[in-house]
Amino acid sequence: MSQLLLDVNELTMRFGGLLAVNAVNLKVRNRQIVSIIGPNGAGKTTVFNCLSGFYIPTDGSVLFNGDQLAGLKDFQISRKGLVRTFQHVRLFSKMTVIENMLVAQHRHLNTNLFAGMFKTPSYRRLEQEAMDRAIYWLEEVDLLQHANREAGYLAYGQQRKLEIARCMSTQPELLLLDEPAAGLNPFETKELDQLIIRLRDEHEISVLLIEHDMGLVMGISDHIYVIAQGTPLADGTPDEVKQNPDVIKAYLGES
Amino acid sequence: MTEASLYLLQQIINGLTIGSTYALIAIGYTMVYGIIGMINFAHGEIYMIGSYVSFIVITGLLAMGSFALPLVLFIALLVAMLIASTYGWTVERVAYRPLRGSNRLIALISAIGMSIFLQNYVALAQGSRDVALAPLISGSVLELGSLDTFEVTLSWMQLLIWVVTLVTMTSLTLFISRSRMGRACRACAEDLGMTNLLGIDTNRIISLTFVIGAALAAIAGLLLGLYYGVINPFIGFMAGLKAFTAAVLGGIGSIPGAMLGGLILGVTEALTAAYFPSEYKDVVAFGLLVTILLFRPTGILGKPEVEKV
After folding, report:
1. Same domain as A222, residue A200
2. Closest residue to A103, CB basis, from B193, B198, B309
3. CB contact under 8 A, A107 and B179
4. What residues contact residue A226 under an 8 Å CB cut-off, 6+ apart?
């Protein structure tokens, strides 16, 4: 078994009287694609919000590479190597594609003001590295020819790919994708599918996925967690989950 | 040229001069609004502090003698920018950051409180009466025409204001569009939460915008102080309101908008004062604000805010 990357124990999130997430356990290992599925309103995105520092969980622990994430600010969590996307596209739409890529690498660049003013050799080298990385990832998602266009003018499918590329340029270890296939056509979904697999196999990162497209989830996941009404229902390999009677009941109702 | 057109020309020159300084102050309002969506009502006071610091430095250096005037002004400018920036940074840290995420109205009240505090603090420390400085830069660069009753001139002081403003605005534009920090500022203005999630410490970027805004206000403080020759602890209020008007006029959140808005407001005021009783210039300036808010709330260069889904 490969090394444990993300270890979530008994994660609980309560909003007043509403129990949105109830004692969820989640494990993601290195080089694994793990999916969270469940009906609408099951609390999947709330789990993401807890992991990425948007919410402070009411209870439970989140260990990432052995470090406790609870209490860290969102920017600190992303610096540790855990980045996420949202259900809706959140690009800097008035900035160009390449600028979107460079902003994401802000923290890798030299923060010294004087280095920036006088363009010292180390500053130039870091800038160059950031640019190389940006170009590399734009090529990976086939957007290099659009590098100088405003991100807001890209087609929807391209915007989604740019989001993933932007996340990747921060050199994460774990990528959280919230419904990446929403609104994509079958061809684009297929491309996304290939991209996520490449992220695992070639770039050796892990992906935690929320997705409703069952074809995509079943096709690429190493492990699947099913949540219903905030509570863990089942988990296992795609085949195990598909045959689990509780899961079938939750999705199709009692028969 | 006829008397009427010469008179008009002179008023436009005067208006562009005042307008440039409004634009410098307006940048501070617009950048802060663009990123955290709040109006920093203490910004006028930062301008006032910049004015005071530059007066103190200039008087001090001149009293010591043996310095060339350009050097004195340059040192005064640097010190004023530095100290005003420190104030800008501290105000954000003390009065706004703890309130981030709370209701906008609360931050606004905190800003007004900060403004009153700074006014009274300077009034206590420096006295509340007018402080005057003998004109340091006199004479005119250009005589554009003269008639028996008056001369149309562009003075050295006006030219200085134009040049300094132009250089500052150009540097700022380059900084925002080309530099790494500028890129981060634009990212914050578009989506603060997402910028945070990409691992950028947005609090530092917010501090940076306060520091830049304050430094620009201090430049305006030095220039207007020299131009008018008289300052008091309460000049920040009116200057702040005018600059705010300029920022709204140009489209709040937009940096080119603040520049344009400042110039338009300055010229409008000068022309009002030229052809109507000069007391009406504030009426017209704020009338312009009301009109803009009624008919084009996004300002001249502002884009309508897209509702985030």
Report:
1. yes
2. B198
3. no
4. A36, A37, A38, A232, A233, A234, A235, A241, A244, A246, A247, A250
Domains of chain B plus CATH, in order, are 3-295 (1.10.3470)
Q: A206 and A156, same structural domain? A: no
The pLDDT of residue B309: 40
Residue A131: strand pairing partners: none
Q: Which residue has the tokens 């690009």?
A: A91
Whether A86 maps to a domain, the answer reads no
Domain residues for the domain of A121 are 91-171
The DSSP bridge pattern shows strands A4-15 and A59-64 to be: antiparallel
Strand partners, B262: none
| A22-51 pLDDT, tens digit each | 888 999 999 999 999 988 888 888 998 888
pTM: predicted TM-score of the whole model, two decimal places? 0.88
Q: What residues of chain A lie within 8 A of the CB of B180, using their CB?
A: 102, 106, 109, 116, 127
| CB contact at 8 A, B202 and B195 | yes
| Cα dist from A224 to A153, A248, B114, B117, whole Å | 35, 14, 54, 58
Last residue in a domain, options A138, A171, A204 = A171
Q: Note whether B194 contacts A116, CB cutoff 8 Å.
A: no
Give residue A51's Cα distance to chain centre. 10
Q: Which of B226, B187, B182 is nearest to B208 (CA)?
A: B182
Contact B130, B249 (CB under 8 A): no
